[in-house]
Amino acid sequence: MMNMNANTPSDALLEDLSDEMIIDQVGGELHDVPEPKPRRDLPQMMRKIPVTLTLEVGSARISLQELMAIGPDSVVELDVLAGEPLVIKVNGTAIGRAEVVVAGENYGLKVIDLDGLNLDMMAP
């Protein structure tokens, strides 16, 4: 005896289609159903995510022996020339260059250029 209520593979297909399309009962034609609008503007949400902005002065490659010899009066030469722009990093990724300025009682940075940050993607 055959169960008339059993789901067939075509029933599953129609269920999947019903999520995305409406079948015209009279003509049997398929019509696209407009997708619901997203409830949140993703770029707007992304603007609120905190990031860490750092200004990298430079770096030096030294041996462990040289590291062990470093003391309070030691000077380690960096790989950046004096007066050269410093690297701006966001969460460790370089995005541009800047110079150090005084902002009130704190140091600040004056942006020279932004190469690695696509700010247009974040525009509304």
UniProtKB/TrEMBL annotation:
GO terms for biological process: bacterial-type flagellum-dependent cell motility; chemotaxis. Residues 46-113 form the Flagellar motor switch protein FliN-like C-terminal domain. It comes from the Bacteria. Keywords: Cell membrane, Cell projection, Chemotaxis, Cilium, Flagellar rotation, Flagellum, Membrane. Its main location: membrane. InterPro entries: FliN-like_C (IPR001543), FliN/MopA/SpaO (IPR051469), FliN_T3SS_HrcQb (IPR001172), SpoA-like_sf (IPR036429). GO terms for cellular component: bacterial-type flagellum basal body; plasma membrane. GO terms for molecular function: cytoskeletal motor activity. It is found in: Cell membrane. It is a peripheral membrane protein. The keyword Nucleotide-binding does not apply. Belongs to the FliN/MopA/SpaO family. This is Flagellar motor switch protein FliN. The lineage of its organism: Bacteria, Pseudomonadati, Pseudomonadota, Betaproteobacteria, Burkholderiales.
